Amino acid sequence: MIILLIIVCIAADQISKIWIASNTALHSVMIIRNFFYITYAENTGMAWSMLSGHQAFFCLAATVAIGVMLWYMIYKNPNRLTKISLALMIAGAAGNLADRLLLGYVRDFLHFFIFGYDFPIFNIADSCLTVGVILLILASFLEEKKHEQTRVEN
């Protein structure tokens, strides 16, 4: 199940990037006026294009992060929610790593204006990473509550 989640997320990310990148008519499309656009961008940095041009660093960091998360899932056998969160983060890191290794940049295309703020353009891999981090925080919180309850009962 967890491996399937990783594969599906990476596939959705790569297929969407290939589709948008190869379809120039989709490089700039309004979906919902003043809120959601498809805007194709090639990003050599990370969020907000910070540290642009440091591909070797990003590739190394992603590879190490993926390795650590896989090690943790295999050897620490965390709870289900933690496994799902790590799977999403692995898929997100792998999706963007594939772009960096094959193209030298990450393909972004989801572009939102939230309450007038021009949010940085992102992709499905970034979404997987973000949801994974949120779920990991939630899993940690729930695990701490469980341990607190156990201490009170003892």
Please supply descriptive tags for the structure shown above.
4 strands, four-stranded antiparallel β-sheet, single chain, alpha+beta, 154 residues, globular, 62% helix, 4 helices
Describe the structure.
This protein is an alpha+beta fold and 154 residues long. It has one domain. Strands 1-2-3-4 form a four-stranded antiparallel beta sheet. The protein starts with a helix and ends with a helix.
| Shape descriptor | globular
Count of DSSP-assigned helices: 4
Mean pLDDT: 93
Which strand-content bin applies to the residues? 15-25%
Distance between the termini: 35 Å
- SSE series: HEEHHEEH
Q: Which value, in Å, is the CA radius of gyration?
A: 18 Å
- Any idea how many domains? 1
Total beta strand runs: 4
Low-confidence stretches: none
Strand-pairing-aware structural class? alpha+beta
Helices and strands in order, then pairings?
Blueprint: H1 2-22, E1 28-32, E2 36-43, H2 55-75, H3 80-103, E3 106-114, E4 117-118, H4 124-153
Antiparallel strand pairs: 1-2, 2-3, 3-4
In short:
With 154 residues, this protein is an alpha+beta fold. Helix content is 62%, strand content 16%.
